[in-house]
Amino acid sequence: MNIYGKYAPTLDKILNQLMNRFDELNNNYQKVHHERLYEHLNGRVKSEASMEEKCTRKHYPLNAHSALREVRDSIGLRVVCNFIDDIYTCIDYIKSWDDVSVYNEKDYITNAKPNGYRSYHMILEITVPDEDVDGNIPGHYFVEVQLRTIAMDTWASLEHEMKYKHQIKNPEMIGKELKRVADELASCDVSMQTIRQLIKEGD
């Protein structure tokens, strides 16, 4: 059984379209401003096994409606920027796209999680010519976008590794150390942003 059913090809198509759109945005931005808007971009359609696990964990039926309506991260993109300001510039561009509306957004950069996690999360609702799970044509699909700096991304990778590695010695001590490092990296991000602005003021 494929939990996405007949909608699986549409998910792949939306992912490819968005990846191409972000690439085009970055290329055009670089032509105008002579610097990249983001450093790198990752995207994926959540695997069937991961989606089934998530639906089961949340007590949803294992069907396409659960996967595409109750869970809203079947398609995910991560945009990794050099500077904090670039994240908010990316967000402005995303919000200007005609076929995209923001379903939900959480600013964990301004309001970091207690463990130190920082990132900007958006759930986008995108309109496509294909049928959706409710029978609408054009259809509506959800896409999760996470935006963060390189420092935030490095930290999140380490924290993710700790979360899913079950036999760690001194997890409380490591958690406290991760929180301390998160705060230091956040301070570095702000300092680099300030230095960048000072350099630009000299142009």
Largest sheet: 5 strands, mixed
Rg, Cα atoms, Å: 19 Å
Structural class estimated from helices and strands: alpha+beta
Uncertain stretches: none
Beta fraction: 15-25%
Order of helices and strands: HEHHEHEEEHH
First-residue to last-residue Cα separation: 59 Å
Mean pLDDT: 94
- Kindly state the number of beta strands: 5
- With helices defined by DSSP (H or I, 4 residues minimum), what is the helix count? 6
Helix fraction, binned, reads 40-55%
Morphology call? flat
What is the topology, as strand order, of the major beta sheet? Answer: 1-2-5-4-3
Briefly summarize what is shown.
This protein has 203 residues and is of the alpha+beta class.
What does this structure look like?
It is a single chain. The chain is an alpha+beta fold and 203 residues long. Helix content is 50%, strand content 20%. A five-stranded mixed sheet has the order 1-2-5-4-3. Helix 5 (150-164) packs antiparallel against helix 6 (171-201). It is flat, with a radius of gyration of 19 Å. The model has no long low-confidence stretch (mean pLDDT 94).
Task: Produce the secondary structure layout.
Blueprint: H1 8-33, E1 40-45, H2 48-57, H3 64-70, E2 75-81, H4 84-96, E3 100-107, E4 120-128, E5 139-149, H5 150-164, H6 171-201
Parallel strand pairs: 2-5
Antiparallel strand pairs: 1-2, 3-4, 4-5
Helix pairs in contact: 5-6
